[in-house]
Records
---
Amino acid sequence: MQWRSIVVGLVVLRLTLSCVLWLAFGLGPNVSWGFNFPLNFNLHRIELFKEQDGATETSYLSLFEGERDEYDKRYSSFPDKLKTKMKGMAKDMFYFGYDNYMKYAFPEDELNPIDCEGRGPDVINPSNININDVLGNYSLTLIDTLDTLLVLGNVSEFHRAVKLVIDTVSFDKDSTVQVFEANIRILGSLISAHILLTDPKHPFGDVGLEDYDNELLHLAHDLAVRLLPAFENTGTGIPYPRVNLKSGVPPDSINETCTAGAGSLLVEFGILSRLIGDSTFEWVARRAVRALWNLRSNETGLLGNVVNIQTGQWVGKQSGLGAGMDSFYEYLLKSYILFGEKEDYWMFQASYESIQNHLRRGRESCNEGEGDPPLYVNVNMFNGRIMNTWIDSLQAFFPGLLVLNGDVEEAICLHAFYYAIWKRFGALPERYNWQLQAPDVLFYPLRPELVESTYLLYQATKNPFYLHVGMDILESLEKNAKVRCGYATLHHVVDKSKEDRMESFFLSETCKYLYLLFDDENPLHKSENKYIFTTEGHMVPIDERFREKQWSDVFPLEEAAQTARDTSDRLSSNTSNCERIPEERRYSLPLKSVYMRQIDHMVGLF
């Protein structure tokens, strides 16, 4: 068997070369996910052959089999006493940020937690869109936090906050803001808080406010009207990315927008339309979604990430699941769940099929078989070829979306990859290069996506593994981000240097999901009524009234749209995506130890 000796000899040579490079220069074997790049020795694909008589192949996974039970010992149980402690830590974390915002920053938009000062729009530098897209001089953090106060059971502070918003907030401001950010952070929160104040079926007891006269709904309507000019005078119906709240679209506005920014307005605009009986808002949001959908590639079914709103030409041809695209897919599914429009579900299913066909790399099954774990990469929308070797932290939302779609096993595997990155750095770098096993963009602004997916996976599986993940995240934030007056953005996930900013989503989402993760007895979990979270973490009920319109279809149905509905009817009646997790799986690791060890190795943990 001379050829077998040659194979083994080449393997040994490759192993030796890799070890020399690793010891001398720190160039370890990198993750390939099926690609060949310089210095990629692809060790985990090596198969060692034995003599034919009675022998079997040895998988590269055997490299990770070792002491498997170390994972079981660490993650297989989570005492109630520890759960109570973590719940208290999450609550304290929220109030440390919230109380200091109210003390040092309100009525400004955000808290600078290091200097203990408020932050508003950058009026000196209007081109500073990192700040001005989000901060509109409208007490952003207070508004964004309203429903979190109820989740924590603080009805009195919720009432005080609502009154402050009613008495002090106005949108008649000379502020140019991003339509997407104003929609998800402000409009969504006002709608959610209004529903909680007026809906007798909500789970938090008697939280009605005396003399409340729908003021939050009126504010939401006023803001939405001020956002409408973004949808005017575009060649495609896709909105401009920014508007001035007083004067409309700025004269110097660019004609380019991202897919997520333009296509993630339907949940909030749709609920508003159905609350007030005015189809305008849902009409413009749904028109934008359809316009983007019609620009997808005929070859792959994928969309790009940046489009010209006048010509419909793709400026950014990258297709992925992170920044610029994430919530577009999220809102296709959530719009269907809320409104029951089958076209939305069909678009989601078709998108999901294209994602699986062109973005997904790795073995077919999460918890079985050979090969690399699943990973979703960035590709060219027209041909499906990989464009780069990084993923971004926003993509960590996708396991949670998989849970909503019933694909729990796939969610388990992808979540484990992001958790491994967190374990290595104590945070998620904004971009992580899976080929180099290193961050490409080093900051972490206290984003909630990994926490959200952790919470949803725990709700789906009740596996104590996810409580441990939450504890790791909570303790990392306490250790690495806490400063004098709040929690600060990590400027550098390796050296843990900080930036003086605490974005509103930290209180609206990160703290909320952490608290809910450890609070099994929360009224939200005990309610007979079902709720869904917007992309900013605001609670809205899954309610029949949102599936009823006071108007006929706002679009004449095109043939393709009717086909979509017919197809969705068949999908809804004949199939189910729900993957049930067997009861015994709740007492073992959600992902087998060998695969956990494999993922930890692939992100450089050992």
---
Amino acid sequence: MDNSGTKKTCMESTRDFFTSAKFLIYMGHALSTWGDRMWNFAVAVFLVELYGNSLLLTAVYGLVVAGSVLLLGAIIGDWVDKNPRLKVAQTSLLVQNSCVIACGVLLMLVFQFKDQLTELYNGWILTTCYILVITIANIANLASTAMSITIQRDWVVVVAGQDSSKLADMNATVRIIDQLTNILAPMLVGQIMAFGSHFVGCGFISGWNLCSMCVEYALLWKVYQKTPALAVKAGQKEQQQELKQLSPTKDLENGQSPEESSQPLMNETSVVAKSDSPKQRSCCYQMAEPVRTFKAGWVAYYNQNIFFAGLSLAFLYMTVLGFDCITTGYAYTQGLNGSVLSLLMGASAISGICGTVAFTWVRKKCGLIRTGFISGMAQLSCLILCVISVFTPGSPFDLSVSPFQDLYTHLIGEKTLPEAVHSLTGGNITMPTTAAPTQELPPMQSYMSVSLLFAGVIAARVGLWSFDLTVTQLIQENVIESERGVINGVQNSMNYLLDLLHFIMVILAPNPEAFGLLVIISVSFVAMGHMMYFRFAFRSLGNRLFLCCSPEQKVEAVDNPSLPTTV
């Protein structure tokens, strides 16, 4: 073949890649995630600015979002399962971006006319605007959840086909996109708001979502056209055959046959519901439909073979050892400035990307389930540094200081203890005439404690993201197509539940002296999560969990991640 022929072949290969369904999914996900990250960062800043630098609106928004996904996760997933893929993706895309655009326009009006709105009807118009912003933003988040389930948990699986290695590569690439946009998108919108204004920031985000919505809509249609399998949802027999090819392990401990253990619970519920004629359905019956869907979704999740694997991932959300507002606030109390924190966040992102790359390599060598076990041990080993940091020089950890001291101070104000008790009791309790002097904490003599803390957090990101990808692919491969949406919806609800509990834990013990206790609790929950995964892995592989794969077994471990428990 001549040079021109070889060059033409290379050009064709390049063109085929950039026009493939896989690349188009990457492009659409990058645009969607970029808009999500900008909005999630900006809406918190906007709410703080609107309410006089108070965190009240931000806290209410976070509580509403977490509670909504917790209650509606299974219902959203069931809606994804029962409707055509293209309709679900397009509807979720339009609702999500339309709500963000509406919120942006509403916030622009509030920023522009805040003084006038404050005077109208004693401020009730402004309060109504706050409620509308939080409500519409919550609807946008629910639509984003549906979009995430549809694309990342369903479309990716169909595009990958029966190729487990291709599915792992696509999951890793999607996660790398998440890591990059999580750092770059807030930086962009932050600079726009810093050099412009909040009004300009709202306008930029609204314009971005409008343009992005049109491009994403076209990309979805292209992917749908290039992947005919997306137009058809497999029947029950085809789903069972797909499970046998991807993951032949069944729940033998419960005495179930392979056919019995793979029966879709949600389908059975649907069949019973369909058997009832419309005349038999009363108004109360129809109103209770969401409750039945919610219950059936959680029951289906509990009966999955990968239940303990999914639960282990949810337990990792019960932690303060992440780069969120809590850890950032603690770092400020320990003397770290914004410049150092930005460098640490960059290092955390690089560590996360290394974890996604390590996932694909370890999985090819050891198989999917062993990859999760190795990743969990790596994460837990790194988090030991965080526990050590609690007891090293420079740590403010002090059990003699009440964890509720800050709450008590906010309740009684800045009064001395005798004055506060006198005001609360009306002077009916006699206090000592002299109070013990409060001992102030000495200034931090060393950065050893906070350095060990962040070293452990950053290093643990490698194992964390590798483990997250492992559980994600286990759910993708072991859940039948007709339940894929509802199971992932319940998984999101579990994640939000544990995340909500970790915020409650911080509210109960907010002072820096108690942060060490929160670190120990967080590591304990991570350890419990990995113990659950160990149970799942040992039930799937037995003693072979600790054995290295031979060259012949490596291929089998890659293609069939859930090997039988008997040799």
